[in-house]
Amino acid sequence: MARPGYTKISAAGATYVYDSHSNAIIKLDPAVEHLFDDYFRLSRDELKSAHPALSGAVLDTSIKFMADAIHQGLFRPQSTVNFQHTLSRDEFHDELCNGRPALCLNVTEECNQLCGYCPQAYARLSGSGKALSRMTWEIARNSLDCFLALTSAQSQVKVVFFGGEPLLNWKLVEQCLHYLRSEHGGRNIQVRVISNLIVLNQNILETLIASDAQLQVSFDGPQHIHDAGRCFGDGRGTHQQVSDQLAEIRAVNPAYFRDNLSLQCTFSKRNDILEVFRYFSEGMFTELPVELNYVTGSFSERFIASPEQAAQHEQRLDQLIEMYLAALQGNDCFRYDLFWNVLHDVVYFGNRTIGVAPDVSWPNGTCVPGAHRLFADSGGTFYPCENFCESGWDLGNHKTGFEFSKAQALFHAYGDLCQKSCQGCWAYRLCTLCFRRMLYQGSASTNECNDHRDRILRALRRFVYIWEHEPLKRHNHPSSLHSQLGELAGKKSLIDKK
């Protein structure tokens, strides 16, 4: 028997159904919810016997609702989906030219910190890492030329300097900045440097300002949290030095600080998200965008939360939602941008496409390899991203260029994996599980998929809860969920049938 293509959601004091065939959320009347599951296996007379509390009129109304919904294509059993979607070379090229791709240059594997959750730091500590290397000018120039030749001269592209700590190879970064200005000055190129700021000096800062370079700073918030993860090899934390550097940049050039800086916070669920949120809601940090990413991976076991700590984290997220609703109601000062960064799943699910599921589906969770990000390691080998750079999954190198056939092979391998592993899953249209995790294992992990479905359910519940509880008079607030999705998108995203 085919699996049902829906799942029920209890939220905001009511029951909703997420229907994968339409990708819609449907609110159920209490009487309909009462007989919902039985409707698919019992006749009308059997339903009447099974639910004596429902009057004949209510029963008939509920049955009609279900019949109409099914006639409209809702609540269908899960059908077989073709995930083996292919892209031609021309389509790959179009993705590269017409998007806004980024080249990430790993200019050095060296780092002046030994962060507790960093896989490169773990490799150095365990003695299993290869010798640390720096990218040469030849590799950097070839990589830039190859990337820029792939992309449209009219499109905006990004060049990101990554490490290790990229400022430890500042001469190369500076050479690249000069090369981009002198040889590609007519292109719309946004430059970003990801740094811990430890070795930042006046000369480096002046060059970054003159280049209008974005500077993303690795900074985890309160001192005891930051210093537990981001520290020197001898265990000393770096919070004070980074804070001082940020304050110095702000004093030297307030406009550059406000317009070009951002913070990247690596967060462990062992910590208190409310404490981190409040920290970034005060002082100079209110001027800076904050990107929050969760610690993941077995290399960082002491930063991975226990089930109890993970449950407490979810409770704190619910508290944060109440803080958001209270601030929205009272028009209070609140870091709405950071709130939605923390709850980005909610906006993602709100923006999903509503409509009948096609027979052919995009492989779940994946981008087109190389189309949105191309990672060049210090030796000049190209990979889909900095998190997916294992041997065997390369996309070419600085000498041979981007190899479309390898990108296609990677894309097809994931499609084949989805074809085997994703059939019958009610959440396949919402899945964001990156193929990196699945391809490493050779098959979909049951635990990984179960955890991801649980995450989707939590996000759906929060979406419904926020949607139903945002004050009507504040629906037009620019940071409200209603305003972000737009009125039309909102009506399509939450179908309320009674």
Strands, count: 14
Instruction: Outline the low-pLDDT stretches.
Output: none
Q: Helix/strand-derived class?
A: alpha/beta
Residue fraction in strands = 5-15%
Shape: globular
Radius of gyration: 25 Å
Average per-residue pLDDT, rounded, comes to 89
**Biggest sheet descriptor:** 8 strands, mixed
**Major sheet: order of its strands?**
9-8-7-6-5-4-10-11
Count of helical stretches = 20
Into which percent range does the helicity of residues fall?
40-55%
Distance between the termini: 29 Å
What is shown here, in short?
The chain has 498 residues and is of the alpha/beta class.
Question: In words, what does this structure look like?
Answer:
With 498 residues, this protein is an alpha/beta fold. Helix content is 45%, strand content 13%. The protein contains 20 helices and 14 strands. The chain has helices spanning 30-39, 44-50, 56-71, 89-98, 119-126, 137-150, 170-183, 202-210, 223-229, 239-252, 254-260, 273-279, 307-330, 336-342, 344-350, 404-421, 435-441, 446-469, 481-485, 487-493, and strands spanning 6-11, 14-19, 24-28, 102-106, 157-162, 189-195, 214-218, 261-267, 290-294, 373-376, 382-383, 396-397, 401-402, 494-496. Helix 7 links the parallel strand 5 (157-162) and strand 6 (189-195). Helix 10 crosses helix 11. The longest helix has 24 residues, at 307-330. The chain is globular and about 80 Å long.
